[in-house]
């Protein structure tokens, strides 16, 4: 069971699309996020929010007024049927209504209750206001994203990343708590701090500082580091950008790069080709040698320069596909609106076409962010209308 909120909506979606029966509880009139833009066809309405459609797939929806005694009674009956309660309410609200974790887990000690709040239920900062922007800024991720030129401001990750990070931790923790209950027979309260979740999701940022006292700095298109690293984004022949930031050093990769240079007539133009030959003769290299072995470092530098040269002579997509065919790891920078039509994403099944009853036509949704063979992801249904399942869900409980 999920109490509708922005904070935990993605956690509920993860569980629902993986097959859990998630009952979404909204207040009378529907949750406020039904009014979040953008709207389908740019026409506003509580059943037309694309934000709402995306986060509420595969869920059933009911209306319960927690401000009323009858509503709280209905909520208690609903919780009694649940394995997990997922909520992102302000820390003191549910306790003030007598329907919090302590109140209801005393009745059912097997219940797993997951709270997702800005700073955690017991933090001294628990009542501070927060947005996705301030969450990402205060926890650290924003400081690690941006450009080499630090005169430019840092860049916030788009798409509610702060809420998504917290929801991923919440969904994982909920499933671990369910496994623990299967072993020990007891439920537990999972208290997710959105700030803490984002802070430990900063790659090297947090632990470099905590372990060695070193502060890392943001870099254009590559990992933050305490010392500047080599540029990785370069213009292709068509003016688009490609990413050459991965180390290639196996004999097969070195041979592929040499052959590609020769195929394009660029071998003689690449001044460091002899280092590629040298690396091939010594049987390849390992990433651990970079910066430690002078000759290996020279080979890795030659690899990067070769790929930069090839990338500068080919359109971005041709370079990307050519590298992929040769077993070389490079990237291509694409705009968000290109992703759903990209042949790789389509082949993977990422765009999912679903019939949208409100429109009488099919709509393309983003699909699974990961795939698992034993627990397949699928969107079982579109977001519920306000109170759509009141009769089927709440009726039998009365």
Give a verbal description of the structure:
The protein is an alpha/beta fold. It has two domains: 2-202 and 349-397, 3-Layer(aba) Sandwich (Rossmann fold), CATH 3.40.50.10540; 247-332, no CATH class. Helices cover 38% and strands 13% of the residues. It contains 16 helices and 13 strands. It has helices at residues 9-17, 50-55, 69-79, 93-97, 101-105, 132-139, 161-184, 194-199, 204-212, 251-263, 273-281, 294-313, 316-325, 336-339, 343-348, 390-394, and strands spanning 2-3, 23-26, 60-63, 84-87, 112-117, 189-193, 217-219, 222-225, 233-235, 241-243, 331-332, 351-356, 361-366. The strands form five sheets. It has a three-stranded parallel sheet. Strands 4-5-6 form a three-stranded parallel sheet. It has a three-stranded antiparallel sheet with strand order 9-10-11, covered by helices on one side. It starts with a strand and ends with a helix.
């Amino acid at each position: 069971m999920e109490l509708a909120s922005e904070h935990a909506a993605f956690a509920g979606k993860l569980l629902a699309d993986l097959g859990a029966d998630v009952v979404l509880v909204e207040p009378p009139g529907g949750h406020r996020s039904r009014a979040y833009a953008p709207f389908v066809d740019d026409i506003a309405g509580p059943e037309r929010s694309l934000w709402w459609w995306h986060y509420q797939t595969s869920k059933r929806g009911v209306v319960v007024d927690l401000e009323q005694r009858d509503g709280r009674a209905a909520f208690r009956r609903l919780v009694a049927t649940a394995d997990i309660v997922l909520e992102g309410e302000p820390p003191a609200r549910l306790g003030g209504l007598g329907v919090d974790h302590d109140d209801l887990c005393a009745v059912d000690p097997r219940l797993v209750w997951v709270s997702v709040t800005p700073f955690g239920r017991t933090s001294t900062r628990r009542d501070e206001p927060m947005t996705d922007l301030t969450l990402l800024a205060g926890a650290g991720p924003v400081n690690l994203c941006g450009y080499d030129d630090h005169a430019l401001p840092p860049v916030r990750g788009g798409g509610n990343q702060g809420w998504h990070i917290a929801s991923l931790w919440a969904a994982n923790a909920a499933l671990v708590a369910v496994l623990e209950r299967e072993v020990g027979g007891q439920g537990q309260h999972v208290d997710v701090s959105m700030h803490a979740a984002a802070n430990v999701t900063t790659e090297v940022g947090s632990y470099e500082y905590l372990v060695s006292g070193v502060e890392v700095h943001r870099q254009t298109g590559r990992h933050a580091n305490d010392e500047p690293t080599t540029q990785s984004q370069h213009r292709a022949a068509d003016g688009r950008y490609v990413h050459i930031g991965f180390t290639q050093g196996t004999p097969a990769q070195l041979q592929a790069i040499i052959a590609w240079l020769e195929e394009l007539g660029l071998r003689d133009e690449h001044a460091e080709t002899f280092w590629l030959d040298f690396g091939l003769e010594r049987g390849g290299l390992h990433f651990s040698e970079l910066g430690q072995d002078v000759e290996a470092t020279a080979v890795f530098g030659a690899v990067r320069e070769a790929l930069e040269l090839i990338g500068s002579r080919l359109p971005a997509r041709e370079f990307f596909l050519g590298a992929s065919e040769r077993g070389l790891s490079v990237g291509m920078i694409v705009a968000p609106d290109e992703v759903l039509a990209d042949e790789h994403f389509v082949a993977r099944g990422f765009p999912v076409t679903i019939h949208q009853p409100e429109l009488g036509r099919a709509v393309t949704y983003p699909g699974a962010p990961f795939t698992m063979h034993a627990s397949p992801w699928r969107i079982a249904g579109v977001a519920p209308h306000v109170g759509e399942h009141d009769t089927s869900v709440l009726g039998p409980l009365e």
